[in-house]
Hints:
Elements: H1 4-13, H2 17-30, H3 36-47, H4 51-64, H5 69-81, H6 85-98, H7 103-115, H8 119-132, H9 137-150, H10 153-166, H11 171-183, H12 187-200, H13 205-217, H14 221-234, H15 240-253
Amino acid sequence: MKTHIEQGILLEAQELYKEAIVEYEKAALEEPKNPEPHIRKGTLLEEVGDFQSALQSFDTAIMLNSRDALALNLRGDVLSTLKRYDEAIRDFSIAISIDQEDIDSYYNRGLAYAGIDQTDNAIQDLTAAIQLDPTHGGANNNRGLLFYKSGDFQSALQDFTKATQVRLGFACSFTHRGRVYEKLENTQMAIEDYTQALQISPTDATALFFRGSSYLASNENDKGRIDFELLINTAPHENQFRMMALEKLESLRK
């Protein structure tokens, strides 16, 4: 006979989240000193967007074991989602003090520092995550964004290139690198990157807008018009790039 935790894991695999949560609650009642069911329940609650209930579950897990780095990292992630960055940083820092090779906590703390514009601290943490895991595409991508923001385009270029190599199937790193090439006044390379992004995600609004704009900068107005029209027809009406594409098309008609 399966335990309630085992049953919950099976239900979770079937995406029967409410039923899985019930099993984890039963497990918590049977094992009141075990933080695992609270961690599993909290993770599912975060997955479905019930962040306050997720926090309560992680709070309980940490009360049962204040040295549980996983629970601290997960609670920090929810706090970051809620933009409670100072509290999140505290949780990630405790998790790192428990496990100095906790890649996820370095990465998540880096994102939290970025959220409060502490760029140097953010870069330092993302660098630590990359040193621990050189194939961490998310850390390369996000560190690239910070380098781009600070005007260090060569470092940004290196990070986005690495991200495209280790994190296959993500269009955004190609789009970000395209933006760097624009800053470096290499319009053709920018267009090539936007095209690669669109091969992965054919209606990506960001890539369509910037490729269309790059086509206009290269006097390839017909190609730019095609990108803007596809963007307008596929993006939600409130999308900012859709609205800017409408303005671009209007200017082309004048």
